[in-house]
Amino acid sequence: SAVISQKPSRDICQRGTSLTIQCQVDSQVTMMFWYRQQPGQSLTLIATANQGSEATYESGFVIDKFPISRPNLTFSTLTVSNMSPEDSSIYLCSVPRTGSANYGYTFGSGTRLTVV
Amino acid sequence: KQEVTQIPAALSVPEGENLVLNCSFTDSAIYNLQWFRQDPGKGLTSLLLIQSSQREQTSGRLNASLDKSSGRSTLYIAASQPGDSATYLCAVLTGGGNKLTFGTGTQLKVEL
After folding, report:
1. Is the pLDDT of residue A99 over 90?
2. Amino acid B95: pLDDT
């Protein structure tokens, strides 16, 4: 199944700044997914990143706050912009394990973000 | 809108006990259900995947069952060990086959 390398693994950032999180997959995938996990909560889908088109955002998430790039079929970035303490969360990327959602999903190791 | 609930929210057991974690979902039109393990501050590790047409899957000491019509899944852990301590999440695939909806999680602690 696909293997994801996600970085950074953690960061502490000042409010008002931006952080870009990277995910590199060892195989080509059509769709990549970005999730947020707030402290003590489960995962919430932020957006679906499609290569060659704009990302599709879920309700409550906007492109200005969470811009996403998908330059090719193995790489994506998520930027958390103009950060506030409420953005402190674990951010994770995900892809289908074998190119099809029928076989489940695999996740990156997560980025633990603390905004101070 | 799909909603996924896990019971209990937290569980503490002595080493060696067999235990059951529960997952329920409101919309039975799922493609599959996946159980994950998450260690504190880390990403997710996939444990088991059950297709909508299947009733159970086994991997080592883990057994997951699915009753799609009643909207329920259970994860059975046999002979629990301290290394099993983690948060366990279930997730269902619905909505055109691409969207995962996660449960609220069960935080498990296995004590010596």
Report:
1. no
2. 67
Q: What tokens does A84 get?
A: 């506030």
Measure CB to CB from residue B34 to each of A42, A104, A108 and give the nearest one: A104
Contacts of A21 in chain B (CB under 8 A): none
- Interval A18-59: pLDDT, tens: 999 999 999 999 889 999 999 989 999 999 998 888 899 999
On whether any CB of chain B is under 8 Å from the CB of A42, the answer is yes
Alpha-carbon Rg for chain B, nearest whole angstrom, is 13
Instruction: Give the burial string for B67-96 (b: 16+ CB within 10 Å, else e).
Output: ebeebebbbebeebeeebbbbbbbbbbbee
Label residue A98 by pLDDT band (50, 70, 90): confident
Interatomic CA distance for residues A27 and A100, integer angstroms: 12
Q: Which two tokens stand for residue A111?
A: 């980025």
Residue with tokens 């009733």: B55
Q: How far is A104 from chain B (nearest CA, A)?
A: 6
Q: How far is CA B100 from CA A20, A21, A45, B82, in A?
A: 24, 21, 8, 29
Give the side-chain half-sphere CA count within 13 A for A115: 18
User: What local confidence, expressed as pLDDT, does residue B99 receive?
Assistant: 81
Nearest to A76 by CA among A1, A17, A2: A2
Strand, coil or helix: B17: coil
Strand residue runs (E) in chain A:
4-7, 10-13, 19-25, 31-37, 43-50, 56-57, 68-72, 75-80, 89-96, 105-107, 111-115
